[in-house]
Amino acid sequence: MRRVGIHAGPLPASFLSSAELIAPQWGAINSFIGVVRQHAHGRAVTDLTYECYVAMAEKILTALVDDIAAEMDPDLGAIVIHGYGAMRPGDVSVAIHVASAHRDAAFRASRALIERLKQDAPVWKHERYADGSSAWSPGS
Amino acid sequence: MTATLHTVTVTIHYFAAVRERLGRDTERLELPATTDDRAVLAIIAARHPALAPLLPPCRVAVDHIFVRGPVALQTDAEVAVIPPVSGG
Hints:
- The complex is a heterodimer.
- By secondary structure, chain A is α+β, with helices and mostly antiparallel strands.
- In chain A, 26% of the residues lie in helices and 41% in strands.
- Chain A is built from two helices and eight strands, in the order ββββαββαββ.
- In chain A, strands 1, 2, 3, 4, 5, 6, 7 and 8 form an eight-stranded mixed sheet that branches.
- In chain A, a hairpin with a 2-residue loop joins strand 3 (39-40) and strand 4 (43-52).
- The longest helix of chain A is centred in the middle third of the chain and has 19 residues, at 54-72.
- The radius of gyration of chain A is 16 Å and the shape is elongated.
- The two termini of chain A are 29 Å apart.
- Chain B is α+β, with helices and mostly antiparallel strands.
- Chain B has a five-stranded mixed sheet with strand order 2-1-7-4-5, covered by helices on one side.
- In chain B, a hairpin with a 2-residue loop joins strand 4 (59-62) and strand 5.
- The radius of gyration of chain B is 13 Å and the shape is globular.
- The chains are: A alpha+beta, B alpha+beta.
- Chains A and B meet through strand 4, helix 1, helix 2 and strand 7 of A and helix 1 of B.
């Protein structure tokens, strides 16, 4: 079971659940949830917009999951969803759920997915701050 | 002897700070059919000097795949200038 998606807007609560990955072949499920933070680069964030090259983002996320499965566990289960558009601090922007027979691959795959997504997903964060200024985030 | 350069017309897609500075998100452009990512950015910089400072850290994608180095472009290829990303 592998699914990737790009979602318009903050992710609703249903995306926080890894229940779809509960299955007897997988002894371990691990999740990463990305939440819009109220501070960035020492400034208070009032709101932000994620711009997304949607068609490419879907392909990149699919490739990331396939690559990580090939490296860590060919039977890996995974759900990766990235939100885009207007968001506020406290909104959920990313949900990653992985499932593997054993916990080592589950922990490693979940970590690898967010790290590589942050390097390669064609998504750009434009933040607006309490002092009225705004900026494109340099990324991590 | 006259050398002929085979060119193709493609659509360039701009995003984020580059899109903002240019004031548009796409344009049709003629590019060499045989080229590389750095050359594509150089052509765009020459055409839009205001973008020049923003382009060096950018990547190039063709038909949704990152290109590093040489690339063969087809007519109507979807070329994208990818500034440093900040998703996740």
